[in-house]
Amino acid sequence: MAFEGLSERLQQTMQKIRGKGKVSESDVKEMMREVRLALLYADVNLKVVKSFIKKVSERAVGQEVMKSLTPGQQVIKVVKDELTELMGGEQSKIATASKPPTVVMMVGLQGAGKTTTTGKLANLLRKKYNRKPLLVAADIYRPAAINQLQTLGKQLSLPVFSLGDQVSPVEIATKAIEHAKEQHHDYVLIDTAGRLHIDENLMDELKQIKEKVKPDEILLVVDAMTGQDAVNVATSFNDQLGITGVVLTKLDGDTRGGAALSIRAVTEKPIKFVGLGEKMDALEPFHPERMASRILG
Ligand code: GDP
């Protein structure tokens, strides 16, 4: 599983405090020193670490622990609660438009896994939620991007809307939505262009699409393995375009966990899905509480 390092370190720390019948302030201090190091080692954003440590420390020396019959376990519960909160608390589900189709713009930098995730999400929507998604090939710049989506569509037996690479992405998106209405698709997933870096052209084009199609959801796809870079990318996209959620890909290869633990707190936008492999079924809704439990063991 992802972030073994963090998990192992935190579990060792929690082990020391678990059975304690009395938890002193210095026990908490010692524990928090270790938690802080574990989080920093996992590449969690410094500000996020500081605020997390402050919150847990306050609660861990407070009434709820002191009055508890099992203070050691109560402290661990505080850590788990705050980890869950850090990752967004409640699960944040994909939007559903009151009037179909729900329009989802998939955005991100090249290589993050955007096209793959578009296919995976369509697959998940159909399989798990019984939806009828339409995939839209609107990345007209990257050679083979359209082909890649069409291949995924074939593999999944899902339709892909394309007008080739000579028509503007705004027009492709608009026509795709008309087509979706006629064909009674309830989700439209628009695979937009990615670039190697965030630049004005990329953002302008995405803003134009957003303006025109008024998406219900703008999902930013970022690569978890890039750690704090992923957080910076998310911040930029959010500031410039406004996103509604994040898909964190390649969590299967992320040994640290910094992005997963920082993105929500830094951008205030929820992680909605996580990618856990290259296969088409390797996408899962993100559950903060389950993730916190997995990390703490
Ligand atoms: P795009 O340029 O953002 O559209 O990126 P692609 O969808 O082409 O993906 C880039 C590479 O990342 C491909 O080799 C994908 O198979 C791989 N990839 C995408 N998501 C995941 C994931 O969750 N886990 C792993 N291990 N690989 C992934």
From TrEMBL:
Stretches assigned to the SRP54-type proteins GTP-binding domain: 270-283
Enzyme Commission code(s) on record: 3.6.5.4
Keywords: Coiled coil, Cytoplasm, GTP-binding, Hydrolase, Nucleotide-binding, Ribonucleoprotein, RNA-binding, Signal recognition particle
Top EC class of this enzyme: hydrolase
Record has Transit peptide as a keyword: no
Binding site for GTP: 108-115, 191-195, 249-252
KW Transmembrane helix (keyword) present: no
Compartments it resides in: Cytoplasm
Known catalytic reactions: GTP + H2O = GDP + phosphate + H(+)
Protein function: Involved in targeting and insertion of nascent membrane proteins into the cytoplasmic membrane. Binds to the hydrophobic signal sequence of the ribosome-nascent chain (RNC) as it emerges from the ribosomes. The SRP-RNC complex is then targeted to the cytoplasmic membrane where it interacts with the SRP receptor FtsY.
Family note: Belongs to the GTP-binding SRP family. SRP54 subfamily.
Oligomer status and interactors: Part of the signal recognition particle protein translocation system, which is composed of SRP and FtsY.
Domain note: Composed of three domains: the N-terminal N domain, which is responsible for interactions with the ribosome, the central G domain, which binds GTP, and the C-terminal M domain, which binds the RNA and the signal sequence of the RNC.
Protein's name in the database: Signal recognition particle protein
Gene behind this protein: ffh
